[in-house]
Amino acid sequence: METVCDKKKLKVIFLPFLSTSHIIPIVDIARLFAMHDDVDVTIITNSTNRDSCRGRSIRIHTVKFPASQVGLPDGVETFNVSTPPDMISKIGKGLSLLQGEIEQLFQDLKADCIVTDMFYPWTADAAANLGIPRLMFLGGSYLSHSAQHSLKKYAPHHLEMTRLQVPDWLREPNGYTYSKKKSYGSLFDTFYDLEGTYQEHYKTVTGTKTWSLGPVSLWVNQDASDKAGRGYAKEEGWLKWLKSKPEKSVLYVSFGSMSKFPSSQLVEIAQALEESGHSFMWVVKNRDEGDDRFLEEFEKRVKASNKGYLIWGWAPQLLILENSAIGGLVTHCGWNTIMEGVTAGLPMATWPLFAEQFFNEKPVVDVLKIGVAVGAKEWRPWNDFGKEVVKKEDIGKAIALLMGSGEESAEMRRKAVVLATAAKTAIQVGGSSHTNMLGLIQELKSLRFEGNCLP
Ligand code: UDP
């Protein structure tokens, strides 16, 4: 018998955390849900944005960030590469002040389910109070979250990582948990052929439900306008430059949305790139005066030799990675970038810096064997330069292997191409992520039936 609930759309409310690389995948997941006619999607955010997916609109509900109450100037309400350290805790405080309003919104918007970032553990209780499921978006790989689980539970451990590579929250207990157990389940941007073993392992050791839905970016960003919708400025110089380069000849170098380096490290990177003999495109986020002068000189030189192209600030990464001139990337192992690199079928030189990036390096280098490590040894907080400076010789060795013509390099490239095909298959009808997504929506609908709906 058809019920009222069968006809009613499933109302799913998304709450992203306010830093670029957490917003990107959770909004992409919201778009995935919005592709389904029977799902009504709302995103709660504190900065005005609009969003849509393949012609279907997504509601955006804006809450006002209480900047003045926490002593912040208007407009400072997200975490990014230039957030001054003294503002970090104030932004955190501002976000916690919004808790009551957001809880009320879940109720007023009549959510059937909420999908919230792992950094909002309180939403698990909010969902429980409303009698609805909370799905937690966990950024990073299954391997990284399984490893973190094991480290917390069984220290000392078997994974080969040095103490210095382990994040501070695992070195000393800090009482913070992702409220895994309280949530209905978790969502990951990964796919079965990439991490199936770890997905199974994660399920077993945590005893929780989980769905891999990736690569979400590939799934929802299928044409140039989707890709360009990621806040890219209209600057076509990079494209012209890439078009002038032979296939697979350019190295893309980027360290995500939050990383910055001390001058000493920038010098080592610049020299390694220049001495590598390969063409490169380097995304530079530093805007310190001293670095600017040195980098501008460097930029003039590599422009003159036509060997390098610098992008200052925000790069159109999705568009760059799919360009046929790109042959490999140097990455800080942010999980979004790894997924985007895998999707593009590119081998990687891995240079983890902070968050769970040292864990993310492992599947790329040791398990999937589509990458080579530059040999970074020390974890640091995201807003700190850290003490380690990776030498140009080590960077150069990794680049040589990544872009080289020997058998080992060719094998990495082959494996990367095979994975890219698997990524595309995962999101097609019958593919693992596609099947997971359909199953998830069905499950959420049946939960609603068990809850408030009468036949
Ligand atoms: N990104 C981009 N342009 C940039 C820097 C980053 O488009 O100049 C995007 C990138 O494609 C990825 C995200 O921002 O989707 C960065 O996420 P990731 O997890 O790789 O690193 P994080 O920013 O968390 O360190």
From TrEMBL:
Listed Pfam families: UDPGT
Residues that span the membrane, as ranges: 12-34
Molecular functions per Gene Ontology: UDP-glucosyltransferase activity
Keywords associated with the record: Glycosyltransferase, Membrane, Transferase, Transmembrane, Transmembrane helix
E.C. code: 2.4.1.-
Keyword S-adenosyl-L-methionine carried by entry: no
The family this protein is said to belong to: Belongs to the UDP-glycosyltransferase family.
Protein name in UniProt: Glycosyltransferase
Annotated organism of origin: Glycine max (Soybean)
